[in-house]
Amino acid sequence: MRALLPEPVEDVDVHEFYATGWVDRGGLRVDFVTSVDGAAHAAGRSAGLQTPGDNRVFAAQRDLADGVLVGAGTAVAEGYRGVRLTERRLTERRRFGLGDVLPIAVVSRRLTLDPALPLFTEAAPEARTVVVTCAAAPAEQRAALAGVADVLVCGEDDVDLAQARRELEARGWRRILAEGGPTLFGDLVSAGVVDELCLSLTPFLVGPGQITRILAGPGAWPELERLELAGVLEEDGALFLRYRLAAR
């Protein structure tokens, strides 16, 4: 890879690129991949858009996170499992002073999650999966999931994502990596809790049809959300963009 911004550099250290201005400061970082024509997935999964470079970036961002935040729909569709870190991944994390576990938090208002999912059953005991929900969620489902996960109740009728961020930070998650989906991304921005967007723009056209963008929600925002470009990587025609949300 070569860095285009802020200075052109060949053979950049991907971990260093994404660690700068992040590891020390912390925050909530959102990671997405999109095609040139704006699709967030191909054939129903983001994997259809990925390139070798995007896979490297994805791994590096996980190496630089205290925990992963994901929406329930994405977790099920993408087949999320509990994260078991290899020695190579542990070496990278230790290089930047991060811990030896990477837990996942899944956001679900309705709690239509099967406790037998690998997301719960394959999580290491020291990296127990967290379920973020609200008080309106079915009590029987909350009780069932409490047997395989740590359940956080944040909000009354809907999930309060600002409270969820505070609760996760209280658990030591200073650097939170949100991996989608589009509805969660929209809700996180609306809640004012996103500090950075890392966007992989891969050189594909998905083509006509109903395209899911990286951001979804019930309606248009009253004003635009300003982004500040913090850096760009390029590999084989794919661009890897770091944006900071203005004044965050």
- For this structure, what is the CATH class? Alpha Beta
CATH homology group = Dihydrofolate Reductase, subunit A
**Terminal residue distance:** 28 Å
Class from helix and strand fractions? alpha/beta
Percent of residues in β-strands: 15-25%
Number of structural domains: 1
Rg, Cα atoms, Å = 18 Å
Do you know the CATH architecture?
3-Layer(aba) Sandwich
Number of strands: 11
Mean pLDDT level: 92
Strand order of the largest sheet: 2-1-10-11-9-3-8-4-5-6-7
Report low-confidence residues grouped into runs of 5 or more: none
Q: Give the helices and strands as they follow along the chain.
A: EEHEHEHHEHEHEHEHEEE
Binned, the helix content reads 25-40%
Please provide a written account of the structure.
By secondary structure, the chain is α/β, with parallel strands linked by helices. The chain contains eight helices and eleven strands. Helix content is 26%, strand content 24%. The chain has an eleven-stranded mixed β-sheet with strand order 2-1-10-11-9-3-8-4-5-6-7, with helices on both faces.
Blueprint (SSEs and pairs):
Blueprint: E1 2-5, E2 9-10, H1 14-19, E3 27-35, H2 52-63, E4 67-71, H3 72-77, H4 87-95, E5 104-107, H5 118-121, E6 130-133, H6 139-146, E7 150-153, H7 161-170, E8 175-178, H8 182-190, E9 196-202, E10 227-235, E11 238-245
Parallel strand pairs: 3-8, 3-9, 4-5, 4-8, 5-6, 6-7
Antiparallel strand pairs: 1-2, 1-10, 9-11, 10-11
List key phrases describing it.
24% strand; 26% helix; alpha/beta; single chain; eleven-stranded mixed beta sheet; 248 residues; Dihydrofolate Reductase, subunit A
